[in-house]
Amino acid sequence: MSRLELRHVHKAFGGLDVLADISLSVGAGEFVSILGPSGAGKSTLFQLLTGAEHGEGEMLFDGARLDDHGRHFAFMPQRDALMPWRRILDNTTLGLEVQGMRRQAARARVAPLFAEFGLAGFERHFPAQLSGGMRQRAALLRTVVQERDMLLLDEPFGALDALTRTAMQRWLEQMWRHHRWTALLITHDVREAVFLSDRIYVLSARPARIVREIKVPLPRPRSLGGDAARQASALEAEILDIILNPNPSKRTRP
Amino acid sequence: MISAGLLLLAWELYATYSGIRATILPAPSRVFEQAMLNREALADNAVPTIRATLLGFACSLSAAFVLSMLVDFFQPLRRALFPVFIVSQTLPLVAVAPLVVLWFGFGLAPKIMLVALVTFFPMLVALVEGYEATEAEIGQMLRAMGAGRWRIFLLARLPSALPYFFAGLRISITYAVVGAIFAEYAGAAKGLGIYMLNAKNNFRPDLVLAAVGVSAALTLVLFGLTVLLQRLAMPWERADRETAGKGAWR
Ligand SMILES: Nc1ncnc2c1ncn2[C@@H]1O[C@H](COP(=O)(O)OP(=O)(O)OP(=O)(O)O)[C@@H](O)[C@H]1O
Ligand SMILES: [Mg+2]
Prior knowledge:
Structural class of chain B: mainly alpha
Number of helices of chain B: 11
Strand order of the largest sheet of chain A: 5-4-1-2-10-9-3-8-7-6
CATH class of the domain at 2-72 and 149-252 in chain A: Alpha Beta
Radius of gyration of chain A: 19 Å
Radius of gyration of chain B: 23 Å
CATH superfamily of the domain at 2-72 and 149-252 in chain A: P-loop containing nucleotide triphosphate hydrolases
Oligomer: heterodimer
Shape of chain B: elongated
Largest sheet of chain A: 10 strands, mixed
Distance between the termini of chain A: 46 Å
Structural class of chain A: alpha/beta
Bound molecules: adenosine-5'-triphosphate, magnesium ion
CATH architecture of chain B: Orthogonal Bundle
CATH architecture of the domain at 2-72 and 149-252 in chain A: 3-Layer(aba) Sandwich
CATH class of chain B: Mainly Alpha
Number of helices of chain A: 8
Strand content of chain B: under 5%
Largest interface: A-B, 37 and 30 residues
């Protein structure tokens, strides 16, 4: 059963068509990725979902129209958006405080999760004192503790170095198996999408439309060796081909 | 510090050995000596200047804060009000100061007004631009969390403006002292400005310079206070420079 459903969503900024025609769905407990080139309009899609911008088309959550009043999403912006002036603990409680929880109660709720997120001992640090990977985990912690119906993750690891990014992807996959969040992830890293997702939507360049929907049949936990890894590489190659050669008919032309 | 010392030394040597008269250019040692001899009069005249500076600055600060919030919440206000304030900044103090004294007398009021006039706009601009420097993503995230405009202002826009606020404060506090002295120069019963004027008219450049020294010291102290205040208000700034916790990526 699908929780989030978009039908023919369209968005233009002034005369600039950004989203041409987006239809997609995300089921309960499903991890879905949106994969597309830079500037395609991926972040714009999240702006529509969080109500920062308005577009045309239908957006449904649990069958009901998505409007500004229902708060279904916990949103993690493209940059970590940690507040430099708040200590890590107080950054992670932000969503709960906005929901009206007392600061002490919010802290008590979040503090036990610091170990699981690899942040134990850094509660009293300021964001500038953390490494890039730790900042992303803090931002993710701030996102998941809101206990909303669904996570919206906009390129959570885009700014990290390759080594840290791989470590974070493994960590997130493990966390997801444990928590089974319903999640929609934006990325332009093919390997990341294949490694983390149950399904992938491949977007075209701007104006974005969905070029292909790909199921990822790989078993979980996602492994890095053996048969599954070969399957993953084949899938990655196929997706890359779709992105880099959007018009197969033109490929043979001189 | 060193450059200031060298400058003083050069000045001392020049004043002593060039044969220039002390009524034109007194040596620093003489200025200091006279400052000590007249310290009661100097202190007596510094008090009204300090009072005018602080009161005027407090007024302009509160006004700038209230107005900056209004401008932040109602953007059209910005276009309506800013031209007026920009014009207010182009008025030459030399012309305005005597007029304000003429209209409002020799008391405290015209001094407060002049200090406020020179410091208000820089503070307003600092605050308004500080609010606007808020990271767009933080705003979007807070809105997605369900925060309203007021909440977003308090949680994100106000703290984001702090570095701009303190930059503005450091500049304005020096303007404030100059503004107060100018106002006194144009007419006052007491104050460093009128003290300088009287000393000049009595051919006592040493006392003029002594008063200048007092006002410079006053400015430095106020400047130092704003730096201290910033340290206290923005503890994360210093944390930025420490490297604790770096390099742990697992
Ligand atoms: N508020 C806005 N006003 C006007 N144009 C906008 C606005 N937001 C985004 N755009 C434009 O929409 C296009 C898509 O932007 P978007 O941020 O959605 O891309 P993206 O797919 O997230 O890219 P990236 O992978 O680099 O983050 C860009 O050309 C951008 O200039
Ligand atoms: Mg983006």
